[in-house]
Structure formats: C-alpha cells, structure tokens
Amino acid sequence: MALLAACGYVGPPMPPTLDIPVTITDFRAWESGDNIEVEFTLPDKTTENLPLTEVRSIEIRIEGKVDALPVSKPGPFIGRIPAREWIGKTVSLSVRATGPKGKPSDWSNVWSLAVIQPLSPPSKPTPVNVEQGVQLAWTGTGPRYRIFRAEADGQPQQLADSDGPRFVDETTSYGTRYRYLVQAIAGDNQWSVVSEAAEITPADTFAPAVPEGLYAVPTPQTIELAWTRNTETDFRGYNIFRSVDNGPFEKIAPLIEFPTYSDSKVETGKKYRYTVSSVDKTGNESARSAPVEATQ
Predict the structure, then answer these.
(1) Based on the number of CB atoms within 10 Å of its own CB, is 48 exposed (0-12), middle (13-18) or buried (19 or more)?
(2) Any idea where the domains of the chain sit in the sequence?
C-alpha cells in the first residue's frame, strides 16, 4: 500500500496528434503580366488548435489540375504560376497545405479569375514640374492605368487611376523627392508589371500673377497708385517701377506689402508712368503690369 501511495497517477494514453493545418479562408488571385499571382495566409494552428510551425507542402488547384507552390512558414504568402496555359479562360482556383505528418487540410475558398492576354507594361513615366504639381506622361496600350507614388525612400503607394497615358499629381510639396511608377490595368484582377520608376523633386519656379487694375491719381503733392491685391498663398510683395517723361523705367519701391503706393517724389509739369510686378516668397517675379500714366 505504501508503495502504491508513493506513485503518481498515470492517465489513459492520448491518441497521436494529426497535425492537419486549419483550412485557408482568405485565398485570392489576380493576373500580373505573364503570371497568375496568389495571396493567402498560411495558418499557424492545426485543426486540433495546436501550434503549427511548418508545413510539408502547399498545393494550388486550377480547374482540377494540382501544382506545387514553394513551401513557406505560417503567415502571409504570395506566390505565382505561369498564366499562358489559361489565357482566354475563366478558371477556378483554390489552395491547401499539408502538415508535417503528411495530412492535408481541406481546400480553401474558391477564387474565380478571367485570364486575359498579358498586358504590356507602360513606358517609364516622364515627370514634369508644373504649377499644379507634377505632370506625368507615358506610353502604353492600356486600356487603363494605375499610378503609384513613393515619397523620399518610402514604399510606393497607390495614388490614382487614369483613363489615358497622362496624369497630374496635385498633392505634391515643393522640395520633397517623389518616385512614380505606372501599371496598365484591364479590370479588378488583371494588370501588367509596373513600369520603371521615374524621380522628381518639385521646385517653386512659378511666378505669381501679374498685378491687375493699376491706376494712378495725381494730387497736389503726390501721385497715388492702387491696384488689385494678389491672392497667392506664397505672395511676398510688389515692386514699383517709374518712368519720368518717357525715360527708362526704374525701380522706386521694392517688395511693398499692400496694393497701394504714394509717390511723393514728383515735380509739377512732368509726366510719370508706372508699372508694378509681384514677387513670391521664393523670389519668383511676375511680368510687369500694363503701364499707367499721370501728369503732375
């Protein structure tokens, strides 16, 4: 009895685990260039809710034909297979994983894909610094296009779609380096390989608008000027130019803030002409306004 009391109780033997991977439920597929690409999450659990650290194989089934995909650890997975055999057909695809003891999971959710003639990649886009932002142009056979943009050394992100081989990115900032890539698209799941990347750093080289509405009114001691205010967000000031008795124009007031000016350095009997330009914070200067004339 003492001997029996000293021994721990041993329960009934447990059956061996099957190590069958949980069924994949987020399978999807698309056509990219010459390939069909697939994406899904390889489960990290077995059907017995035990950890799954590896699988023996991954299989993809297309219209009853089964091929092998590269073996991967549990987690996100992206793979590809040649599309040429399925061009012109709408195919059904699914995947499954086989656990370390050789027992496969059930087949995943089924994904339907219309496989078309591969789309040719567009040419490398040409970026141009324009007043609205960055203008892009490229060549390609479409039928539509998707534009991607990366800031500095970041990863490209989808920016916009375009019906033609041109696009203006109006969301740029001066001094920031951008990289642009373009992809031809035919539908939600058919697209080309992306183009080569083109790089540009936009700069403010654009002058503000020419001042408008300038007029001059002589008074006994001065000639008073006024014009319509500029509305640019980066506006800095106005330059005032004057000509005396048809002589050359000379700058008489640099970078004044308000759209008015009082010229007190005038003499009776002389004819004065005035013109105004606008300047932004970068130093870009507009053309000069149409001259106006006043006689003191």
Answers:
(1) exposed
(2) 28-114, 126-200, 215-295
